[in-house]
Amino acid sequence: MEYLMQGFGVSISFGGVQAVKDVDFEVRDGEIFGIIGPNGAGKTTLLNGISGLVPLSGGEIHFRGKRISGVKKPHQITRLGIGRTFQVTRPFEGLTVRENVAVGAVFGRPRGGRKADVHEVVEAAMRFVGNADKRDALVPDLPVAQRKRVELARALAIEPKLLLLDEVMAGLNQKEIEVVMDMVRRIRERGTTVILIEHIMKVVMGLCDRIMVLNYGERLCCDEPDVVCRNDDVICAYLGQRFTQKRRNGGATSGA
Amino acid sequence: MRDLEFKQQEAALARNRLLAQTRNWPLMAVLVAITLLLVAAPFALGGYWMRVLTVVFIFATMAEAVNIIAGYTGYPALGNAVFFGTGAYVAAIAANELGVSLAPAIVLAGLGCVTYAVVLGLPILRLSGRYFLMATLGLMEITREVVLNLDITGGAQGQIFPSVTSDPVLANRLFYYLGFGLLLLTALATWWIQNHNIGLALRAIKFDEEAARAMGINTTVYKTAAWAVSAFFTGMGGPSTGISWPTSSQQRSTRSRPRCGCTSSTCSEERARCSVHCSAPASWSFSPSSCGPASQSSTILFLVLSSC
Prior knowledge:
The structure holds 2 protein chains of 2 kinds. Chain A is an alpha/beta fold. Chain A has 2 domains: 1-81 and 166-176 and 191-256, Rossmann fold (3-Layer(aba) Sandwich), CATH 3.40.50.300; 83-159, no CATH class. Helix content of chain A is 40%, strand content 23%. Chain A is built from 10 helices and 10 strands. In chain A, helix 3 packs parallel to helix 5 (144-156). The longest helix of chain A is centred in the last third of the chain and has 16 residues, at 174-189. Mean pLDDT of chain A is 87; it is low at 252-256. Mean pLDDT of chain B is 76; it is low at 246-308. Chain B is built from 14 helices and 2 strands, in the order H-H-H-H-H-H-E-H-H-H-H-H-H-H-E-H. Chain B has 2 domains: 1-44; 48-307, ABC transporter involved in vitamin B12 uptake, BtuC (Orthogonal Bundle), CATH 1.10.3470. By secondary structure, chain B is mainly α. The chains are: A alpha/beta, B mainly alpha.
């Protein structure tokens, strides 16, 4: 089977700290692939490795069967059709919402910017995330939820084949989360594959087709959501050894 | 349905744009009027004021040039005076060694500075913030030291530009329009950059370089291009100032080549006249010391900035 993206023994270190250790992963075309793990597990680092912002210290990442890690620069990776958002939102603060999105549409698309079409792509992206009415607002004037939408629109404007979402729902309220979840579903329906980092379990369980769990930079498991959340290693990583023991014992007594 | 809505929005946008333009018309009218006044000014003004305006034009040109790299791109290039000096030397050496005339010498100066900016920009622009700032200051000092010790530059003596014209009034006008032309050119270039995708890329780099890279902008290319454009205009400003500002040449009369119509002796005799006619020199010189004041003022700026 042909995978959209594959990682072979991906390792990333910062000096003596190995943030990602020998991780293999494969993302299928058209799926929503979740990455979860406790704080500091290396989720964001792995995403940075994919988008080329951080060099790999070992292993390879392939996109559509071709190696991208170490060969392509970040802007080239983007133009292959890999868009992303940042965990701590990083829109261009002195630019209006429209200009922010235009940056993606002009520079991020494979064929570069044809002017006539840029306008439509920008408008479409803004309408998709629902902030077209804020097009002339400056980013610092916007609340967090709106900033996240600007980032999302900017990433959508590059018309990605693969979208990397780094905690797009963190810091949003219940209602806003529902809206963004719906957006992610619609993004997938348009044929874009999504890699999603998220802490909110409701989102992860509700959206993802498969989930990879990282802990201390290592891959614990990678499977469908309901399998993953029953995995002892995962529970141990999230809730600690003691809880796992208790659960095991509890499970044993109730089973008996 | 959506299409209709889209078209309505489109029309609203177009209306807004038109409104914005018409709302700006008084400003545009003032700008045009000032431009026309400045074009006509040499026929009404005396040499002194023309000289003042010439210097204003050239310094405004350089300010615009610095704005491209420091303003739009957000790279605090305090050492841009290096292109000012380099440009002047390139033009002078081209004129003296290759016999190039004034206009091509100035263009050559700009192109020389572009080369210099690209070659040095590729390593230096990897730095950011205060580190880039310090590197540009260092670059300036290094260049000054190198220029002082090379034969082709004339060492501490500097270079003397051959006569352009012997008519002081004509020369005065020539440099006035040269400065004015440079300013217009730079302003147009800035306007174009602002309204073009390049401007968008530069501003994106300014606000978040890593995010810009993740959005598909080849930041190395754009940063270097911004610095090169900045260097181009600063570099053309160098010889233009050197020509119209011969004060540094008046202290040195070791060269036999004819220079400014008023040498040190005539200047001391007729200071009043000189203030008018010195401003229309037929030739000029450029020495390493010309880098000095600029570098000092940059250093002061740096201190002010760092104390902020």
